[in-house]
Design goal:
Elements lengths: L11 E7 L1 H5 L9 E7 L2 E6 L3 E6 L7 E7 L6 E7 L4 E6 L2 E5 L8 E2 L6 E8 L9 E8 L2 E10 L3 E11 L3 E7 L2 E6 L2 E6 L5 E6 L9 E3 L5 E6 L2 E6 L9 E2 L6 E5 L2 E6 L2 E6 L5 E5 L10 E4 L8 E5 L4 E6 L2 H10 L3 H14 L4 H17 L3 H10 L9 H4 L25 H20 L8 H5 L4 H19 L6 H17 L3 H9 L6 H11 L2 H10 L3 H17 L5 H4 L11 H15 L3 H14 L1 H8 L10 H7 L5 H13 L6 H24 L5 H24 L5 H8 L5 H11 L2 H11 L3 H11 L2 H12 L9 H11 L5 H7 L6 H44 L23 E3 L5 E3 H6 L22 H4 L1
Parallel strand pairs: 10-14
Antiparallel strand pairs: 1-28, 2-3, 3-4, 4-5, 6-7, 7-8, 8-9, 10-11, 11-12, 12-13, 14-15, 15-16, 16-17, 18-19, 19-20, 20-21, 22-23, 23-24, 24-25, 26-27, 27-28, 29-30
Helix pairs in contact: 2-3, 4-5, 5-9, 7-9, 9-10, 10-11, 10-12, 11-13, 12-13, 13-14, 14-16, 16-17, 16-18, 17-18, 18-20, 20-21, 21-22, 21-23, 22-24, 23-24, 24-25, 25-26, 25-27, 26-27, 27-28, 28-30
């Protein structure tokens, strides 16, 4: 990566500048030259080229306090300082020697072992994270050896030192120890050694022209940065590259980390990079004086450290990490929204910002964009904010004070946008700003106004529509949240306001007809004045204000029918291409939906008439609805139904009888009378218009058939109507089957037979009716009707022969012969009469046989019973009762048909039980013995 322009973003900000020599009171004749620096908790250590250690307190980073100066030897320039908090020591590398000091530099330093010519040293990353362990390990490069030194803090503040060799490595330039892996940098490349087994592996080789190798452990404890010229390669504890490499502007001399930033020094400047993607962020200007390199240090072992120390030879600068919130706020002040959004995403991925603050920033971004007239982007950020309340939008829709003014939270944003005000004012102010920016641009002055607005200034109407549509989008999304009841009322009411402002009729009606929290008082006059009566009717209906809703639907239906309003079916706003309904029908349907659930009889009956005038099926659905809590009074409903609406009357009575189980004879009779009148009228109309084409004739015939079938089924099924009233209606008609059913209900068997046999000539039905009567004289009566139909009708000999053929065997021959007509041809009845006489004789003889067999069986049973009673039974002294097992002796006993014997006492105890002493039941288990009838 080549040189980059200075970034406008400040990731680090200055806190304090130190003059170590002045604070330590060192005379100017022997100046201090800083060669090493280290930060541990709230302490700053500086090492000089003159063999001195300086200690400063960072309790107040903006005003560091000098604590102590400890000389370690004028000929021992300090090259590295490693705080070891777990063993309460400070490790100092000076002129190839390892020295130990206490953390407060209160005692003279002590030499660690006899090690000389130490090239590099590194503490095991993670040892100091647990001070309770009281031990730590360091890796030391001495000559060609790589050593491991274990330090353990013992009682009396003494250290136990254990040293062992890890590997043979020559020319070590830098060390880093993470987990079990010791990373070694030499002039030709990087290697990795196991701190326990000593096994090593080469990671990669450096080019010959490569700069000084450096190794830097990164926060998290499982990654290390290896420097290759100006590239920082990030590897894991196994030496495998992970993530992205960091490309620096120059080859670093020193590297430090304050998560999520990496700070490097080189070429007399300090650069700040983002660790995750290596993005260059900032250059810190440092006035370098004297010789030596810039030193940068931070608390490598600190958690959440924010302090960075940059040291030149004579000056020390303290910098603090700028918080994520402050960086975002700075971008927003400059109205650099893209940068602010990028920062927000960056901090969110790094875990540097809380969820609540993320929501807060999205809300702040949304308000800024809203006042910059970027309404779509503003609402997108509003929707990303989990903590923003919909009531914060209310002042942009309706000026204060209003019903919901107290719901608007007084949140303290960053003061980057004006107070909320209606959208019209926001747009007017924004347009003025755009006009001013246009003049400034012509004058060559840069502005923060969006270039799109400057190149193509929008109109006020377009901006207002865009703003309203996006606020609608936000409010619709807010309806899905768990809001309080007053806030939900505000959301829905303002939604209706905005829908009306854009004349979004479909959306208005959809909201009004669904479950909503709209405040009717706020919308009533608004919708009425603007002519949105359908929406108002839907709103009344959803709020249970049925009377007002129905009144509007009635007005709408009247206006549609009178042509005062344009019919909905003309502009295709209702219904499908297949089934489009007129506005009048839609009004009736909506009214019916309300009436179906209403239990208010007066209200239902008040509006039933006009609905029925439009669609009788809807009226029927209203009356027969099962959705209402309590059903309507049948008496009032029947009285309210228009006499001309016969279909409604019939369907209601049918539902009342069949579905509701009504057993009132009055309604059964009314239903039957209505059906009968309809049938008679249909028959009359059909006969009146005989000149119709075949299709019309078939349609009328089908209608009559269905009507008669319904009447017949009801007359047969119900026993509660008055047959005489029905007969009075159909007396002059040709409805013979209906008359037969009615006469049958009245018990007029002769008339029923006359209708079936003579009028309908249905022999099968007539014979079936005789079978239902169950008397032979009914067949004789039917035979007489066939043979002597009277009224000049010819005898029905074929039907008579059929009757004799089917039932003649059961009839009295004498009565049959008496009924036979002299005019009846002998050849028609001879075979039937002969077969009837033969069957009669056969039945007589069969009866005699059965009678004689019965007498024989009776005689056999009497004989068997006599034999059983005359049996002789011999008992001995050993005979016992089969029930109680007692010896019988001279006791009375009883013997059962299965030859079991019981004493008289057991017999008395078992009286009423048919079981013998052996458990056999004489009633269930009958014993058959051969008798004279069987044996012969």
């Amino acid at each position: 990566m080549g040189s980059q322009p200075p970034a406008s973003r400040a990731a680090l900000e200055p806190l304090a500048t130190l003059d170590p020599a002045a604070l330590a009171g060192v005379p100017t004749s022997s100046p201090l030259t800083v060669r090493a620096a280290a930060v541990s908790a709230d302490l700053l250590y500086l090492g000089t080229g003159g063999g001195k250690l300086l200690l400063f307190s960072l309790l107040d980073p903006s005003a560091p306090e000098f604590l102590r100066l400890l000389p370690i030897g004028a000929t021992l320039p300090v090259s590295a300082i490693l705080p070891l908090p777990s063993v309460a020591r400070l490790l100092v590398l000076a002129d190839g020697l390892l020295l130990l000091a206490d953390p407060l530099l209160s005692r003279p330093v002590r030499r660690l072992g006899s090690l000389r010519n130490v090239a590099a040293v590194a503490a095991r990353r993670g040892d100091s994270a647990d001070p309770a362990s009281a031990s730590c390990s360091i890796a030391v490069s001495v000559g060609k050896k790589l050593l491991r030194v274990d330090l353990t803090l013992q009682d009396g503040d003494e250290l136990d030192v254990q040293t062992r060799e890890i590997a043979i490595v020559e020319g070590v330039k830098a060390l880093a120890w993470v987990d079990d892996s010791v990373f070694v940098a030499i002039a030709t490349g990087y290697s990795l050694f196991s701190s326990t087994t000593g096994q090593g592996v080469d990671i990669f080789t450096l080019p010959e022209s490569s700069g000084h190798p450096r190794v830097k452990p990164l926060s998290g404890g499982d990654e290390v940065m290896l420097l290759v010229d100006n590239v920082g390669v990030v590897v894991d504890t196994f030496g495998q590259p992970v993530g992205s490499s960091l490309v620096f502007n120059t080859t670093p001399d020193c590297i430090a980390e304050v998560y999520p930033y990496v700070i490097v020094t080189g070429n007399s400047k300090v650069d700040v990079y983002r660790r995750r993607n290596g993005a260059y962020l900032q250059t810190i200007p440092v006035a370098r004086t004297g010789q030596g390199v810039l030193i940068v240090a931070s608390d490598d072992d600190g958690i959440g450290t924010e302090l960075v120390v940059i040291a030149t030879a004579y000056k020390v600068f303290c910098y603090r990490k700028v918080s994520a919130v402050e960086q975002i706020k700075a971008s927003l002040r400059r109205k650099n929204y893209k940068e602010a959004i990028s920062l927000l995403e960056e901090f969110e991925s790094d875990g540097e910002i809380s969820e609540d603050m993320i929501s807060f920033v999205h809300a702040q971004l949304g308000f800024l964009l809203l006042f910059d007239l970027r309404f779509e982007d503003a609402v997108n950020h509003f929707l990303l904010s989990e903590t923003m309340q919909p009531s914060e939008i209310f002042p942009f829709i309706m000026p204060d004070p209003n019903r919901w003014s107290d719901l608007v939270p007084r949140k303290r944003y960053w003061g980057l946008h004006p107070p909320p005000k209606p959208l019209e004012e926001v747009i007017d102010d924004g347009l003025i700003t755009i006009q001013q920016a246009l003049f400034l641009k012509k004058a060559g002055v840069d502005t923060v106004v969006d270039e799109d607005f400057l190149s193509n200034p929008p109109s006020r109407a377009d901006l207002l529509e865009l703003a309203i549509r996006n606020i609608i989008r936000y409010l619709c999304a807010s309806r899905m949240k768990d809001l309080s009841s007053p806030e939900m009322e505000g959301v829905d009411t303002f939604l209706m306001y905005l829908y009306r402002a854009l004349d979004l009729v479909d959306d208005m009606e959809k909201l009004a007809s669904s479950q909503n929290s709209c405040v009717v008082d706020e919308l009533e006059s608004l919708l009425d004045d603007s002519g949105h009566l359908r929406t108002l009717a839907f709103l009344y209906g959803s709020k249970g204000m049925c009377s007002k809703a129905l009144s509007i639907w009635r007005i709408l239906a009247r206006n549609y029918s009178a042509g005062l309003w344009k019919d909905l079916s003309e502009n295709g706003s209702s219904g499908t291409s297949v089934d489009k309904r007129s506005g009048e029908e839609i009004a009736a349907i909506e009214a019916a939906n309300i009436l179906k659930t209403s239990s208010d009889e007066d209200l239902v009956l008040e509006h039933l008439g006009w609905v029925a005038d439009i669609d009788q099926e809807l009226a029927i659905a209203i009356l027969t609805s099962e959705m209402r809590e309590s059903q309507l009074s049948p008496e009032k409903v029947v009285a309210a139904i228009d006499a001309e609406k016969v279909l409604i009357h019939q369907r209601y009575l049918q539902w009342l009888i069949e579905d509701q189980g009504c057993d009132d004879p009055h309604y059964h009779t009314s239903y039957a009378l209505s059906l009968a009148k309809s049938v008679i009228e249909a028959v009359h109309m059909e006969s009146k218009y005989r000149g119709k084409d075949n299709r019309e004739i078939d349609s009328d015939a089908q209608k009559i058939y269905l009507l008669r079938e319904k009447l017949q089924l009801f007359l047969q099924a119900s026993d509660l109507y008055d047959p005489e009233d029905i007969l009075d209606v159909i007396a002059e008609s040709e409805l013979w089957l209906e008359k037969a059913i009615l006469y049958r209900k009245m018990g007029q068997e002769n008339i029923v037979l006359q209708i079936l046999a003579l009028k309908l000539e249905d022999s099968e039905a007539a014979e079936q009716y005789c079978a239902e009567i169950g008397r032979d004289d009914a067949y004789i009566q039917l035979l007489g009707l066939y043979l002597d139909p009277q009224n000049g009708k010819e005898p029905m000999f074929t039907a008579a022969v059929r009757l004799l053929h089917n039932h003649g065997e059961s009839l009295d021959p004498m009565q049959v012969l008496e009924r036979l007509s002299a005019d009846m041809p002998l050849q028609l009845a001879s075979d039937t009469i002969l077969r009837m006489l033969r069957a009669r004789v056969h039945h007589h003889r069969q009866g005699q046989i059965v009678h004689n067999l019965s007498r024989a069986t009776n005689l056999d049973a009497r004989l068997t019973r006599l034999e059983e009673r005359s049996r002789h039974v011999q008992l001995t002294d050993e005979s016992i009762c089969d029930s109680c097992r007692a010896r019988l002796g001279t006791k009375l006993f009883v013997m059962y048909p299965d030859d079991s014997v019981v004493c008289y006492r057991c017999y008395r105890n078992q009286q009423g039980d048919s079981s013998s002493g052996r458990g056999r039941s004489s009633r269930k288990d009958v014993i058959f013995k051969q008798s004279w009838l069987v044996s012969r």
